[in-house]
């Protein structure tokens, strides 16, 4: 699994990890991947359109794949990532493809957006790269910035054998923290767990649930 596909952790103490990871990337190398999301069609986007979502936030945007997918499908989009490098890469990539998007550096724990600023939000592979306590805070922040009745998409990675083969420590909350000499050193990952997700999304109506081509468990809930 490529490191840039895992970027999404937003705990404050891991900011340096994501900044360092994104400092090794550049838009020239990532543009071919980004372009695949231009005019992307998916069940998730169809549901957002059906529910008349107009203004959307791409949380922990990485290099802007879902920012582009949303913008190219007619949504008004703002995006953020904890890494300033990622935010700059996203802005440059979108600019090259003809999109002028408001992208900034911010944590999902404190986005800086106004209450109910958005109709919906995408948060792909974000909350499972945080401690459970921070994941709950991050989800609460998404609920704050999305209006009542709006939609929130969250997804969670499966842990594969390659992940488990790396040196790591098991945390009390069920997360693992990578250690050792790998590029993932310091990264947090919570293995997908139905009980954990049910607790995280407690009280929300689940409108959509699926496993996508990346083996991510995707949920869309009504705020």
Can you tell me the CATH architecture? 3-Layer(aba) Sandwich
The fourth-level CATH homologous superfamily is Vaccinia Virus protein VP39
How are the strands of the biggest sheet laid out side by side?
Answer: 3-2-1-4-5-10-9
Secondary-structure element sequence?
HHHHEHEHEEHEHEEEHEE
Task: Give the biggest sheet.
Answer: 7 strands, mixed
Radius of gyration: 16 Å
Number of strands: 10
Q: Between the first and last Cα atoms, what is the distance in angstroms?
A: 31 Å
The fraction of residues in strands falls at 15-25%
Query: In the CATH scheme, what's the topology name?
Result: Rossmann fold
Taken from the alpha-carbon principal axes, the silhouette is globular
Number of helices: 9
Q: pLDDT average, as an integer?
A: 89
């Amino acid at each position: 699994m490529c490191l840039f596909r895992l970027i999404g952790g937003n705990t404050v103490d891991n900011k340096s990890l994501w900044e360092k990871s994104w400092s090794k990337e550049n838009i020239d190398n990532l543009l071919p991947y980004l372009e695949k999301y231009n005019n992307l069609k998916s069940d998730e986007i169809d549901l957002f359109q059906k529910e008349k979502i107009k203004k959307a936030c791409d949380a922990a945007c990485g290099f802007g794949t879902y920012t582009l997918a949303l913008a190219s499908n007619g949504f008004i989009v703002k995006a953020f990532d904890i890494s300033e490098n990622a935010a700059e890469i996203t802005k440059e990539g979108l600019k090259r493809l003809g999109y002028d998007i408001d992208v900034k550096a911010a944590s999902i724990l404190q986005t800086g957006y106004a209450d109910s600023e958005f109709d919906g939000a995408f948060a792909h592979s974000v909350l499972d790269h945080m401690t459970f306590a921070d994941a709950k805070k991050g989800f609460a922040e998404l609920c704050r910035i999305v209006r009542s009745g709006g939609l929130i998409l969250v997804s969670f990675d499966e842990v594969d054998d390659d992940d488990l083969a790396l040196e790591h420590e098991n945390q009390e909350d069920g997360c693992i923290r990578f250690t050792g000499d790998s590029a993932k050193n310091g990264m947090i990952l919570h293995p997908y767990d139905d009980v954990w997700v049910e607790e995280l999304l407690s009280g929300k109506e689940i409108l959509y649930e699926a496993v996508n081509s990346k083996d991510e468990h995707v949920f869309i809930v009504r705020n």
